[in-house]
Amino acid sequence: MRLILTASLMALLTFAAACSQPAASGDWRLDGERSRLSFVSIKSGEIAEAHSFSGLSGAVAPDGQAELVIDLATVETGIDIRNERMREHLFEIGSFAEARVTTALDLAALADLETGERRSLEIEATVSLHGQSIDIIAPVIVTDIDGRHVLVESAAPVLLHIGDFGLTDGLATLQELAGLPSIAPVSPVSFSLLFTRG
Questions:
Q1: Are 111 and 16 in contact (CB under 8 A)?
Q2: Buried b vs exposed e over 6-37: b needs ≥16 C-beta within 10 Å?
Q3: Which end of the chain is more exposed for a tag (fewer CB within 10 A), N or C?
Q4: CA 136, CA 18: separation in Å to the nearest integer?
Q5: For a pLDDT cut of 90, what percent of the chain falls above it?
Q6: Binning pLDDT at 50, 70 and 90, where does residue 130 land?
Q7: How far apart are CA 152 and CA 142, in angstroms?
Q8: Going by DSSP bridges, is the β-strand pair 132-144/149-154 parallel, antiparallel, or unpaired?
């Protein structure tokens, strides 16, 4: 639910990584195989469970335009029936297959980042999910690994509200199908995103 929202947020952070190299270096591409975006759902008031999305892609162009795409069909909760219910009733992937995070970056801001150096930043971006878009600010840590690979990580869990994306009804359906007294409408999200210069 709000889980997806948080995922998009993490994407923004990855874009910041691209800023650490001069624009002339070319596009930066997200390494989906070595990146991770996770979220936590809280049910029945006190039971927390960790979930993730495996279908991540994205890039940062030389002009600073950045986008992260999350394939909502790749949600993984550890339980097949719960994955199916989230895809059908929460995300409604038949109509809304992806979540997107977009931002425009000042690539010069991190041009002096040294190999091995870690730097804290705040990223402003737009998260589009389930037909709705909201602007967000996310704290991230950017690390230049070797001049060709940049790691962008959440500095702290990002909290997102499902109501902002029109997912309240879907969350209520999940709660009813699972026979739960409650599912929290806010979810913490964390991420580790690796970008490679193209």
A1: no
A2: bbbbbbbbbbbbbbbbebebeebbbbbeebbb
A3: C
A4: 19
A5: 54
A6: very high
A7: 5
A8: antiparallel
Residue matched to tokens 């979220």:
39
Give the separation between CA 117 and CA 84, rounded to whole angstroms: 41
Count helices and strands (H / E) in the chain. 3, 12
Phi, psi dihedral angles at 75 (to 5 degrees): -60, 135
Counting Cα atoms < 13 Å in the Cβ hemisphere of 100 gives 11
Q: What residues have CB less than 8 Å from 75, skipping those under 6 apart?
A: 3, 4, 51, 52, 53, 83, 86, 87, 91
Please give the Cα distance from 152 to 120 (Å, whole number).
10
By residue range, what is the domain housing residue 118?
A: 2-197
DSSP class of residue 62? T
Beta strands in the chain (DSSP E): 28-30, 36-43, 47-53, 56-60, 65-71, 75-76, 98-104, 118-129, 132-144, 149-154, 158-161, 186-197
Instruction: Give the confidence band of 121 by pLDDT, cuts at 50, 70, 90.
Output: confident
CATH number for 29: 2.40.128.110
Task: Round the average pLDDT of the chain to a whole number and report it.
Answer: 85
Q: Identify the CA nearest to 186 among candidates 170, 169, 163.
A: 163
The type of residue at 167 is: L
Report the number of distinct structural domains present in the chain. 1
> What CA dihedral angle connects 157, 158, 162 and 166, to 10 degrees?
-150
